[in-house]
Structures are given as C-alpha cells and as structure tokens.
Design a protein that fits this description.
This protein is mostly helical. About 65% of the residues lie in helices and about 0% in strands. The protein has one domain. The two termini are about 15 Å apart.
Length: about 120
C-alpha cells in the first residue's frame, strides 16, 4: 500500500502533463466536484510536492471517481467477474486521467508537481 499510493499519484501527475480531450464529461456535477477537490489539494502549496497525506487523499478521490464512473458506464458492474471489474477500472482510470490531463492543459488544474 505504501508504494501503491506514490505510484498511483505519480501516474496521476504524469497524466496531468500529457494528453488532449477526454471521454469523462466536464458537465457532470459529480465529476466537477471531483475536479474541485483535486484542484484544492494541488493548490494548497503551489510549486511544492504533495505530502504523504495529500497523496493518500488524491488516491482516495481517484479511486472513488473511477468506481463511480465504472458503475455509471457498466450497469451490473458489481456482478461481473473480478478480472472484468479490474479491466473496467483500468479503462476508467485511463479516461479519468485523460480528462485531468486535458484540464491541466487548459490551465484549469495546476501543472504537475513531481513527488
């Protein structure tokens, strides 16, 4: 778990630095709330790396958003085999990180900070 959080946060930060338009909708109120929470974390200490607690919070927010998107896009998600659920979660992770990268490119989210 200790290495998973920095790894996922690193992937999120790298995603901020790349990609264009994403599939996740910017008009979805729940997604907009997610974006605001992520933005609040990254703007607490401009130009500085996230603390371990902040990284854990980003991980929690990302996990919740990925799970929310998986349930929205795949009715009956909870009844699928675990390997299918994992595959869907990876697809959703890619969609969410692409959306975050697009928002970073537009200046809506701050630039990536290396931990």
């Amino acid at each position: 778990m200790k290495t998973l959080i920095p790894t996922l946060c690193g992937a999120i930060l790298l995603a901020f630095a790349s990609f264009t338009k994403a599939g996740a909708g910017e008009t979805d109120p729940a997604f907009n709330q997610f974006i605001q929470e992520i933005k609040a974390i990254y703007t607490r200490h401009p130009g500085q790396a996230l603390s371990e607690m902040e990284s854990a919070e980003v991980y929690r927010l990302m996990s919740a958003e990925i799970d929310r998107e998986a349930h929205l896009d795949h009715p009956g998600f909870d009844n699928l085999a675990s390997d299918k659920q994992e595959s869907i979660r990876m697809e959703e992770f890619n969609k969410v990180r692409k959306a975050l990268a697009d928002l970073q490119a537009k200046g809506i989210l701050p630039s990536a900070i290396k931990n």
